[in-house]
């Protein structure tokens, strides 16, 4: 169960044992073992076994353990779930979710598998990967379909599935994906999903571009990002960690508003800025996020 935010979720093909070992030692908050795009059809079975064997090691290292299974529209997803739903698994990342029925199908199977492996009901999250045009249109219903959805991926990637379906031309500035990321953020927040995840940046050498993209994603409201290379981890973690000045400012807001309330006032003044209840609640939310990130390190 995803009980805390993950600033960086690092992709690793499930068959790459050496990469998994390095990822466990890396600065990633979470690791996503990939059974989908990075694995050829003839490698699916050994990849499942490798992912199953790695989950406990990832969890024992204090990292979130995710597995990207194959889409419900493929013949692989049931065997994927049967292999990886086990103690230590944080979430199943479900790709190319087009409608609530696909998400609920995975939910139903996981519900049946949990007691068989000694897991409490609801232990495993389902993280929908919102990367199709149909999924974008139906995102509000998809993201509200199950309490297992505590995070999701907003599918923006250079020449990725969403770019292809919308016939978009990728730009470094992200103009073409801004609507997609904004809509998915809004739909997820309306559904009460606490940990929206942005992604991904595929130009490995353009660290400044990735830094700008990560910061913009944080500004939009995302709490973390999918990462495809270890060189991006430090940038990702920094971008999604509230700064010391942000934390200090939020504490000052909370203190000022509390003092005003004790005097029977509904607002406060802090450095020539009027502080009201909404600002107080926003400050408390950021402080809670900072605390959750700190506890997860």
Name the helicity range: 40-55%
Oligomer: single chain
The strand line-up of the biggest sheet is 1-2-3-4-5-6-7-8
Low-confidence residue ranges: none
Work out the strand percent: 5-15%
What is the number of E strands? 10
Supply Rg.
20 Å
The CATH architecture of the largest domain can be given as: Alpha-Beta Barrel
Q: End-to-end span in angstroms?
A: 17 Å
Which CATH class of the largest domain is shown? Alpha Beta
Shape: globular
Would you tell me the overall average pLDDT? 94
Instruction: Count up the domains.
Output: 2
**Helix-strand category:** alpha/beta
What is the overall number of helices?
Answer: 12
Biggest β-sheet description: 8 strands, parallel, barrel
Going by CATH, the homologous superfamily of the largest domain would be Phosphoenolpyruvate-binding domains
Annotated CATH topology of the largest domain: TIM Barrel
Provide structural commentary.
- With 297 residues, the protein is of the alpha/beta class.
- It has two domains: 8-239, Phosphoenolpyruvate-binding domains (TIM Barrel, Alpha-Beta Barrel); 244-296.
- The protein has helices spanning 17-24, 44-60, 77-84, 100-113, 133-137, 139-143, 161-166, 178-190, 207-220, 233-239, 244-262, 277-296, and strands at 8-13, 30-34, 64-68, 91-94, 125-130, 151-154, 195-198, 224-227, 268-270, 273-275.
- The strands form two sheets. It has an eight-stranded parallel barrel, surrounded by six helices. It has a two-stranded antiparallel sheet with strand order 9-10.
- Helix 2 (44-60) runs parallel beside helix 3 and helix 11 (244-262) packs across helix 12 (277-296).
- The two termini are 17 Å apart.
- The mean pLDDT is 94.
């Amino acid at each position: 169960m995803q009980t805390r935010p993950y600033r960086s979720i690092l992709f690793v093909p499930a068959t790459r044992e050496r990469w998994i070992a390095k990822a466990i030692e890396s600065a990633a908050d979470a690791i996503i073992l990939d059974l989908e795009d990075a694995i050829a059809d003839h490698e699916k079975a050994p990849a499942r076994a490798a992912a199953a064997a790695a989950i406990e090691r990832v969890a024992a290292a204090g990292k979130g353990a995710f597995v990207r299974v194959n889409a419900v529209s493929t013949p692989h997803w049931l065997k994927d779930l049967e292999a990886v739903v086990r103690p230590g698994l944080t979430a199943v990342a479900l790709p190319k979710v087009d409608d609530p029925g696909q998400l609920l199908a995975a939910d139903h199977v996981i519900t049946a598998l949990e007691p068989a492996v000694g897991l409490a009901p609801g232990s495993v999250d389902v993280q929908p990967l919102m990367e199709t045009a149909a999924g974008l249109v139906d995102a509000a219903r998809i993201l509200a379909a199950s309490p297992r959805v505590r995070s999701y991926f907003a599918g923006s990637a250079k020449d990725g599935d969403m770019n292809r379906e919308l016939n978009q031309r990728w730009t470094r500035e992200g103009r073409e994906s801004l609507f997609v990321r904004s809509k998915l953020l809004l739909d997820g927040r309306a559904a009460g999903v606490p940990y929206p995840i942005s992604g991904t940046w595929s130009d490995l050498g353009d660290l400044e571009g990735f830094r700008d993209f990560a910061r913009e994603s944080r500004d939009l409201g995302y709490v973390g990002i999918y990462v495809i290379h270890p060189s991006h981890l430090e940038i990702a973690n920094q971008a999604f960690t509230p700064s010391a000045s942000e934390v200090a400012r939020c504490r000052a807001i909370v203190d000022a508003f509390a003092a005003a309330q004790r005097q029977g006032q509904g607002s406060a003044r802090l450095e020539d800025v009027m502080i009201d209840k909404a600002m107080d609640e926003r400050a408390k939310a950021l402080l809670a996020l900072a605390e959750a990130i700190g506890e997860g390190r």
